[in-house]
Amino acid sequence: MYSAKVMDHFEHPRNVGEIEDASGVGTVGNAKCGDIMRIYLDIDENQIIKDVKFKTFGCGAAVATSSMATEMVKGKTVQEAMEVTNKAVMEALDGLPPVKVHCSLLAEEAIHAALWDYAQKNGITIEGLQKPKSDIHEGEEDEAEEY
Ligand code: FES
After folding, report:
1. What is the distance in angstroms between the CA of the first residue and the CA of the last residue of the chain?
2. 49, 59, 100, 127: which has the highest count of C-beta atoms within 10 A?
3. How many domains, the chain?
4. What CATH number is attached to the domain comprising 23?
């Protein structure tokens, strides 16, 4: 049911953890299952993503897609990171079962929320980036079930 790449990233997820004083942090909840994902970005003065970490309270497909997504945005500029869509991540993982496609959205949304946080803090515009719908702020996790 799952590709070898999905299993690999699920069993050995890359970039798990947090970044202290991150340039941008995004937390999102999945409307379908209530799972939660948080992404931390460390971005330098040239708008290059130097480091990225994630934490998730989610299913295996969410773990695998987040792991792959973090690998794909690392080293990219914030604008290039916009090209790391859930579709691109799924392709890189050799696909996901149809019932798990929504899980891959969590990583994309969390990256966008973290980029939004960074853009807001630094007064910059990232083309194509929209205000996250379901950003959950520190201390509001209890409300996550509503998303
Ligand atoms: Fe919740 Fe996959 S079932 S993210």
Report:
1. 28
2. 49
3. 1
4. 3.90.1010.10
Q: Does residue 88 contact residue 72 with C-beta atoms inside 8 Å? A: yes
Mean pLDDT, the chain, as a whole number? 90
Q: What is the pLDDT of residues 13-58, one digit of tens each?
A: 999 999 999 999 999 998 778 899 999 999 999 999 999 999 999 8
- Could you tell me the distance, in angstroms and rounded to a whole number, from the CA of residue 136 to the centre of ligand 1? 17
Q: Which of 17, 61, 21 is nearest to 39 (CA)?
A: 17
Which one is catalytic: 36, 63, 73, 103? 103
ipTM: 0.96
Place of tokens 């990233």: 9
Query: How far is residue 63's CA from residue 84's CA, in Å, rounded to a whole number?
Result: 16
Q: What is the DSSP letter of 57?
A: E
